[in-house]
């Protein structure tokens, strides 16, 4: 290899478990063999691993994967231990240690906790250990979930400044049609932009043991591409798929963003994908191009309407007067201060100039992104 990489690999439940729902040691051995090969080459590797519920529900006496939240959480409490124990044993046979990192969406939505998670993972990676990340399914409710591990893996990749995101699935890439229904469907080897047409190609989940389908993977790649992280989608059971994906010789789809908008730093990544906007503001038409195209800051006089209450430093959703979402911004004013400023501005037309001189803009950072991600 000409250079080493920091690689995030997402492994789905169907790639880890047998048809009976138990952990497939054979599948895990093939996976850890490949990760160990990457480690031997000098790469840093982080796994985002599903499989806790699938690995634990039969131990609780369920014949099929449970449907209710308490049953899933109970299954995860059993399965997570089995999963990390097997990972640790297999990595140890290669001379490497594994660590377990269980997180919730709250760890990402709070900026201090977000930075703490990054610092912890960086230490683990720098010490040569393989972090195995999963959502803490035992305590996480549906309302507070990331949604699926496809999304989680993309956010983790941005968190740790990954050089590559690899998502393994039961399909060997993105096709221009559903290959299970259309024998003429063609694999797309490279994608540089997630267009409406590509989003329309996304189908329903293809596995009974996973939670994410092609739609969730496309959303994950949108996050990774906006963060400037090249990504890959391929079939998990192809021989040496992970090693070949890092070498960029594997069969599958490679996602790369080639525009200037593909360089969100950590601050903007947090605002865009993790903050959870607390309120909304509507801006005047004249400010739309400044926010979306020029990425300029927003002045108090450009705020048309305030919807909700927020503190200084909160993140809000920004809309135009037609209700179209434009992005997210971190506020330099509370809603009360901004409202008071607007009242004072009506009496003093020069107040905006004073604000500009003091650099006390309404929005410190603007993120013009697809808000639906």
UniProtKB/TrEMBL annotation:
PROSITE patterns: GLUTAMATE_5_KINASE, PUA. GO terms for biological process: L-proline biosynthetic process. Pathway: Amino-acid biosynthesis; L-proline biosynthesis; L-glutamate 5-semialdehyde from L-glutamate: step 1/2. It comes from Alteribacter lacisalsi. The keyword ATP-binding applies. Substrate binds at residues 50, 137, 149. HAMAP family: ProB. InterPro entries: AceGlu_kinase-like_sf (IPR036393), Asp/Glu/Uridylate_kinase (IPR001048), G5K_ProB (IPR041739), Glu/AcGlu_kinase (IPR001057), Glu_5kinase (IPR011529), Glu_5kinase/COase_Synthase (IPR005715), Glutamate_5-kinase_CS (IPR019797), PUA (IPR002478). ATP binds at residues 10, 169-170, 211-217. Residues 279-351 form the PUA domain. Belongs to the glutamate 5-kinase family. It comes from the Bacteria. Keywords: Amino-acid biosynthesis, ATP-binding, Cytoplasm, Kinase, Nucleotide-binding, Proline biosynthesis, Transferase. One of its GO terms (molecular function) is glutamate 5-kinase activity. It is an enzyme of class 2 (transferase). One of its GO terms (cellular component) is cytosol. This is Glutamate 5-kinase. Catalyzes the transfer of a phosphate group to glutamate to form L-glutamate 5-phosphate.
């Amino acid at each position: 290899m000409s250079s080493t990489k920091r690689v995030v690999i997402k492994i789905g439940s169907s790639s880890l478990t047998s048809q009976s729902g138990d952990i497939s040691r054979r599948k895990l051995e093939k996976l850890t063999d490949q990760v160990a090969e990457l480690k031997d080459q000098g790469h840093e590797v982080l796994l985002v691993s599903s499989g806790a519920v699938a690995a634990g529900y039969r131990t609780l006496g369920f014949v099929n994967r449970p449907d209710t939240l308490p049953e899933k959480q109970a299954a995860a409490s059993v399965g997570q231990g089995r999963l990390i124990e097997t990972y640790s044993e297999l990595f140890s046979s290669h001379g490497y240690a594994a660590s377990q990192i269980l997180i919730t969406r709250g760890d990402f939505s709070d900026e201090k906790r977000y930075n703490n998670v990054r610092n912890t993972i960086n230490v683990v990676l720098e010490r040569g250990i393989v972090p195995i990340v999963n959502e803490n399914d035992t305590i996480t409710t549906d309302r507070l979930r990331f949604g699926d591990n496809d999304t989680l893996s993309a956010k983790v990749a941005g968190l740790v400044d990954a050089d590559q995101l690899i998502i393994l699935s039961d399909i060997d890439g993105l096709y221009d049609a559903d290959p299970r229904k259309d024998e003429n469907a063609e694999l797309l080897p490279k994608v540089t932009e997630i267009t409406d047409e590509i989003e329309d190609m996304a189908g329903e989940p293809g596995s009974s043991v996973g939670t994410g389908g092609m739609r969730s993977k496309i959303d994950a790649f949108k996050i990774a591409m906006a963060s400037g992280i090249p990504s890959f989608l391929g079939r998990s059971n192809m021989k040496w798929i992970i090693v070949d994906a890092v070498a960029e010789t594997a069969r599958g789809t490679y996602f790369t963003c080639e525009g200037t908008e593909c360089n969100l730093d950590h601050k903007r990544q947090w605002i865009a994908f993790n903050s959870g906007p607390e309120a909304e503001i509507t801006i005047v038409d004249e400010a739309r191009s400044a926010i979306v195209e020029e990425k300029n800051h927003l002045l108090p006089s450009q705020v048309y309407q305030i919807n909700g209450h927020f503190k200084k430093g909160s993140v809000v959703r920004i809309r135009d007067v037609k209700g179209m979402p434009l992005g997210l911004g971190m506020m330099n004013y509370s809603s009360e201060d901004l409202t008071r400023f607007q009242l004072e501005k009506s009496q003093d037309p020069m107040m905006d100039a004073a604000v500009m001189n003091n650099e006390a803009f309404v929005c410190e950072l603007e993120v013009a992104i697809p808000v639906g991600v």
